[in-house]
Amino acid sequence: MTKKAFASSARAKPAAKNARHRSDRRIDFSDIPQSTDEELKRARRVGRPKTGKAKQLIAIRIAPPLLARLRRLAAKRSKPYQTLIHELLDRAAPR
Questions:
Q1: Does residue 24 sit within a domain?
Q2: How many CA atoms lie within 13 A of 25 on its CB side?
Q3: Chain centroid to CA 24: how far?
Q4: CA 5 → CA 9, 13, 19, distances in Å?
Q5: How many domains, the chain?
């Protein structure tokens, strides 16, 4: 059984990096049907909804054992671990 190669996998990244870029002008779009007005009316935005309370995306380094404990604690509370980390930091930081 052969494994599928995905662009996000560690093995596929070097292959994707070495792949030559193809300009949009060279792509044949002729077999793609035009969207009808009805399809465009039913189309919905993809992604996170705009709530006006967007959070800043950051990257931090957390020791694996600590992250494992946080994930277990979040699972016990039935919430995503990033939400739990946000709540813990919010309580710990003075206003």
A1: no
A2: 0
A3: 25
A4: 7, 10, 14
A5: 1
